[in-house]
């Protein structure tokens, strides 16, 4: 079988911790051929550590050697690099969020369509075992029509103190774009892409802009911190559906908490851990699941789905048009917070 030649662009944390190890587990399908980073020393270090044969200082040169790339740079460069790769006939898995703006996301989709290449985004929560079970339960009508969705992506005092996460110019935002986006994406996917009609949002930065913070994830500079550390939103969709959304890096709460729960007409569910809430035989009826198969390697599942899609052997789990809608909603939340009014979509 022909191996897919894979290149890595941006050899930092997520490339080394998730993508490269996942591709290495797929040796029967992928050959890690090349790596590129503006920080050449980091590219060389990754190449040595993972035995990647080619290091490039320029991504245009890398495109000539590969069939596909995985983009792991700060968000500001996602669209520019993805469009260049797609125009060179190279398939793209781009880390989340898809890009800084909806316009950039659309340019990526247009390039993928024009050059008939595969484009997917690293919304890996969809590949998690619980998420897959929840999707099947909803498709099989266990909860009936969804009505109300609650999302909480909450951390207590964990502003990432490394990398460029607190830099608006390079990342476009903070807790929403970094963490909240995963749960927002997962909720939209589970709800089968409902059409949003109105968004009310508030973004906060006051805690992290105050000097002397107690922070569990390293140190950051409160003076240069210029992104959100806490975001709330109320999203109204067509057909009466609504979502209460909250995410934070640094809330003053008892403990970290990742919640996605959906109440439908006939039942409800929570995704983490997966539980189903129904009423049967005159009683309230709760179901838990015993997930089989050991540790949940969602990074591997993400990599395999992308590789198989490039080979024409699978359909993408994360379609780029869906990822664009996440960015569109995040833009609306930020716009609502800035103007103090709701945004009609
Ligand atoms: N899916 C997830 O859960 C998850 C987790 C962490 C990060 N991410 C995403 O991954 C991306 C990278 O994050 P990270 O934590 O690996 O950051 P990082 O800072 O550890 O690594 C980024 C790397 O990109 C390089 N780089 C910067 N500009 C570049 C350019 N123009 N061309 C080539 N290389 C460039 C940097 O030198 C650095 O080595 C971000 O988009 C982030 O949102 C996703």
Quickly describe the structure.
The chain is α/β, with parallel strands linked by helices and 345 residues long. Helix content is 33%, strand content 25%.
Task: Give your account of this protein's structure.
The protein has 345 residues and is α/β, with parallel strands linked by helices. The protein folds into two domains: 4-120, 3-Layer(aba) Sandwich (Rossmann fold), CATH 3.40.50; 126-298 and 326-344, 2-Layer Sandwich (Dihydrodipicolinate Reductase, domain 2), CATH 3.30.360. The chain has ten helices and 15 strands. It has helices at residues 13-24, 40-50, 59-63, 78-87, 102-114, 129-139, 168-171, 175-190, 298-310, 320-339; strands at residues 4-9, 30-36, 54-56, 68-71, 91-94, 119-121, 146-154, 196-204, 230-237, 242-248, 257-264, 267-270, 275-280, 283-288, 343-344. A nine-stranded mixed β-sheet has the order 14-13-12-11-7-10-9-8-15. The chain has a six-stranded parallel β-sheet with strand order 3-2-1-4-5-6, sandwiched between helices. The longest helix is centred in the C-terminal third of the chain and has 20 residues, at 320-339. The N and C termini lie far apart (47 Å). The relative contact order is 0.16. Nicotinamide-adenine-dinucleotide binds next to α1. This is Gfo/Idh/MocA family oxidoreductase.
Main attributes of the structure:
345 residues, alpha/beta, Rossmann fold, Dihydrodipicolinate Reductase, domain 2, six-stranded parallel beta sheet, 10 helices, binds nicotinamide-adenine-dinucleotide
Question: How are the elements arranged and paired?
Answer:
Layout: E1 4-9, H1 13-24, E2 30-36, H2 40-50, E3 54-56, H3 59-63, E4 68-71, H4 78-87, E5 91-94, H5 102-114, E6 119-121, H6 129-139, E7 146-154, H7 168-171, H8 175-190, E8 196-204, E9 230-237, E10 242-248, E11 257-264, E12 267-270, E13 275-280, E14 283-288, H9 298-310, H10 320-339, E15 343-344
Parallel strand pairs: 1-2, 1-4, 2-3, 4-5, 5-6, 7-10
Antiparallel strand pairs: 7-11, 8-9, 8-15, 9-10, 11-12, 12-13, 13-14
Helix pairs in contact: 1-9, 4-5, 5-10, 8-10
The structure holds nicotinamide-adenine-dinucleotide.
Nicotinamide-adenine-dinucleotide binds next to helix 1.
